[in-house]
Amino acid sequence: MNRQIATSMGILALLLWSTLVGLLRLSTEIFGPIYTVTYVYTLSAILLYFSYGLPDFKKTSAKFLIISSSLFVIFELCFAFSITLAKSVEKSIEMNIIFSLWPTLIILMLAVLKEEKVNFLTIFGILISFSGIVMINYHPNLNFIDNFYKNPLSYILIFLASILWAFYCIYTKKHSNGTNAVSLYFILTAIALWILTFFTQGFNFPHVTHFTSYSFILINAFFFAMGYLAWNVGIIKGNMPLLVILSYFSPMLSSAFSVIVLHSTLSNNFWYGAITVTFGSLICWLSTRKKQIHHPKLAI
């Protein structure tokens, strides 16, 4: 596979992922948050297993698999439930924008670990990103604190998801040795969700008669699984710098798709805030790359 095709697959992954918030929310309206998440991750796990298989356990560190699996499973649970438990469609979309803080958090974590030097540009980017979150949650007579108290669980889960995903990215980059265990991660996530479902819901499955209701679950699971497979090919064999830059704009695309699918409207403050978060993340990324900007191998 040549570099152009691999890069195209990485871009396809971003397009597939941009549909997830809208489709998750549509399914939540029918099946409820717990069953929606459980069904989607179960089908995704099955698709990934038959498409990719399991990692070679003999060539992989048990410590790495335990730590990375734990981080991934908890992250996925936090992210999915923050979207499905949000009080409204608009809040689900806002949660996704808040999650896009993870690139900024990676820079912060690397700075704490003394693996990246923080400069004025980095600090400026971080401040801009967080100011965008405040802007998104500002409405007349309603600020960020008011919004938080109205839906604390979703906010706590999405902030935790951002932190966990940033930590997961750093840890797997340093310790994976090229191992891709995403199918295992999804299987473990599905098992954890079924345990949670039976403990909280028992065997009382939702009664849904229309096939179209299940089609949203099937499409969501397919896009989720194929997105992970396509992204893996893209970052390994494609133009990584280009994919990283494009990934910063995926929350904007996701929000636009969700607005169309969910027939929702978002305030001007939301769009200004989303652009601000994206801009701040890009500044952070550029602050860590400026020493390499003239390096011919990194030219896009």
Descriptive account of the structure:
The protein has 300 residues and is mainly α. It has 14 helices and no strands. The protein is globular, with a radius of gyration of 19 Å.
Please summarize what this structure is.
Pfam families: EamA. This is EamA domain-containing protein. This protein is 76% helix and 0% strand.
Overall SS class: mainly alpha
Proportion of residues in extended strands: under 5%
> In the residues, how many domains can be counted?
1
Helix percentage range: over 70%
Main β-sheet: number of strands, strand sense, barrel status?
none
End-to-end Cα distance: 19 Å
Shape category = globular
Mean pLDDT: 78
Number of strands: 0
Q: Measured on Cα atoms, how large is the radius of gyration? A: 19 Å
Strand and helix order: HHHHHHHHHHHHHH
Number of helices, where a helix is a run of at least 4 consecutive DSSP H or I residues: 14
Residue windows where pLDDT falls under 50 for at least 5 positions: 292-300
List its salient traits.
single chain; 300 residues; mainly alpha; 14 helices; 76% helix; disordered C terminus; transmembrane helix; AA-Vitamin_Transporters; EamA domain-containing protein; EmrE-like; cell membrane
What's the layout of helices and strands?
Elements: H1 3-17, H2 20-31, H3 33-52, H4 62-84, H5 89-99, H6 102-112, H7 120-136, H8 144-150, H9 152-175, H10 182-201, H11 211-237, H12 240-247, H13 250-261, H14 268-289
